[in-house]
Amino acid sequence: MGDFDQIDSERLYRHVIELQGVKHPVVSPDALNACADRIAKAMANSGLRVREQRFRVDGFDLDFRNIEGSLGPVDTEASAVLVAHYDTVATTMGANDDATGIAAMLEIARTLAALPSPLPVYFVAVSLEEENPAIWAAERKHARTLGLVDDDTNYMSWSDAKAAAKAKAAAQAAFRGGLAYGEAWQKVLAEGAETIPPALRTLFEAMLPFYEGVTTATAPGYLSRIGSHQWVRSALAEGRRIAFNITLDEIGTCSHEEGSQGKLGGIDLYPLFADSHRVDRERRIADFLLVLADANSGAVGKALMAKARSPGIDLPTAFVHTPMNFQELAKAVPMALNSDHANFWKEGIPSLFLFDSSTGRNHFCHSMADDIRAVDFDHVRGIARAVASLIADRASWPDRL
Ligand SMILES: [Zn+2]
Question: Can you give the pLDDT at residue 3?
Fold first, then answer.
């Protein structure tokens, strides 16, 4: 199985130099496509079979592409699936979110492809994790028509910016609290009758048809997390067997400063750790990988913890193993469904979400400050080695045969 020391920080760094930049379906579709081409080429250069899945989103006239590389006997055996997304929001370099995930995936693929008889693995670079381009474009169009925003979607006035942020936060809170998304917005509009400026109100009302009937359980694949939804759906329809998934999304923020690990969405993470390796709980140092598993994903989570502890890797790692499944999480902790792993959990497939706790330690997510200077490539290297080591070890896979 090896120690995977051929996965090095320099290669990861060079991938992210190439991959970073705004790759948004509406403001920079050419960059999004160029990135897909680049990923496909890197996969082919490593000796993977490369396939492309094209899909569409209702109300938006453009093809989107998931790039899938594969190794080993994926047609006859249950396969591991590694996922990272290559699209970004419109306002970021996306170095950490999620060029780090794609870079790690490409290096893991390269090293696993070099093994004498590779196990069955899919490497899927998905598009449209961040948002639905039809909804985004409609909101921008209405906001422009109403004179609320400039060409870069900056609100033209501070009072509108403040009111919009407040309304969006309130709608998100009501949504997470159990209301359907449309109802959450209706509530915000009703309660803000006097405080939401008229033009903003017109904008939010115009967006309501997009939110009708959307719940925290149906949001993955519609509001966001769209490419992975498409991939899982078609893989299952084709009768492919999936042993487990690992999703890498924002894995590069790391700090060695005392107090650098904060709460995530108001939740203190430390009491949730089912297991951890080299995590400094006292001084709250944000230098560990966070691994999230649902009820069905405990076995693969434990297997990854064992790899994190192994002498050749020795990666600070914390493991959160919730006893809830997808439907229960959608009701109780929808924040736990915030990346592509959600679409695997939804189908009862074991899946781990690997991340750096996002806003739990990094306040610049989705901003232009998410550039390569803020990524710790030695940390990313440790994560890539742990994941490669797990995938290469058939005995540690959860048994779904
Ligand atoms: Zn992301």
Answer: 65
**Four-residue CA torsion sign, 363, 366, 367, 373:** positive
HSE, side-chain direction, 13 A CA sphere, residue 337 = 30
- Of 1-5, 74-78, 290-294, where does mean pLDDT reach its minimum? 1-5
What separation in Å is there between the alpha carbon of 198 and the centre of ligand 1? 33
pLDDT at 166 over 80: yes
CATH number at residue 340: 3.40.630.10
Q: Is 226 helix (H, G, I), strand (E, B) or coil?
A: helix
Q: Are residues 47 and 181 in the same domain?
A: no
- Per residue in 233-277, pLDDT (tens digit) is 999 999 999 999 999 999 999 999 999 999 999 999 999 999 999
Q: Does 148 share its domain with 120?
A: no
Q: What is the tens place of the pLDDT at every residue in 83-98? A: 999 999 999 999 999 9
Q: Are 220 and 206 spatial neighbours (Cβ–Cβ below 8 Å)?
A: no
- Domain assignment of residue 161, given as a range: 133-211
- Residue 229 sits in the same domain as residue 360: yes
Residue 318 CA to ligand 1 center (angstroms) comes to: 19
Distance, in Å, from the CA atom of 295 to the CA atom of 290, rounded to the nearest integer, reads: 17
**Ligand 1 midpoint to CA 128 (Å):** 10
Distance CA 368, CA 391 (A): 33
In 122-225, which residue ranges form alpha helices assigned H by DSSP?
A: 133-145, 158-176, 181-191, 198-211
The answer to whether residue 401 scores a pLDDT higher than 50 is: no
Compute the distance from residue 274 Cα to the ligand 1 centre, in Å: 24
Residue 95 CA to ligand 1 centre (angstroms): 10
In a domain, 20, yes or no: yes
| 187 CA distance to ligand 1 middle (Å) | 29
Span from the CA of 85 to the centroid of ligand 1 (angstroms): 7
pTM score: 0.97
Model confidence at 74, pLDDT cuts 50, 70, 90, reads very high
